[in-house]
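Because discrete structure vocabularies remain unfamiliar, we turn briefly to a single example record, giving the amino acid sequence and backbone structure tokens:
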Amino acid sequence: MKVVSKQRNSRMCFVCGMDNPVGLKAPFYNMEDGSVMTLFRFEEEHQSFPQRVHGGLAATMLDELGLRALWALEGEDVLGVTMSMAVKYRKPVPYREELVGKGIVVKASPKFATMKTEIYDRKGILLVSGDLRYIKLDAEQIAENVDAHEEMCYLIEDDVKEIN
């Protein structure tokens, strides 16, 4: 599927923060079908048991994909927080392997959004999925004295044009 544009990365977010020494530094791409996708990898430090990523960290990526899907639909000025998330673990999530994340908004209103998020291996096997519900909030309602535009300061261009 073709990449339409790239989203910004933050300073310190665990998933996308470029200055976070233990984070994933995941890039996010707006896709031609209105979804968002990422290519990323977990490392051995993210394991729960040898050869498996901690389930909470897989859920963390699903959660990030939810907000990123909202941005793909409505733009990066829309903020929100997770109200609920149901996760289904289908296969062990490996570390040290490139993975594909995908998120799409399935329903949106002025105040709420519902998203479907998924993590696949590069063979296309679904590893874990999530159904999320977000409430849209202004930055001041989420955290005091934070400039969202200052935090989301990195736009790192690359040559990714398509993700399969």
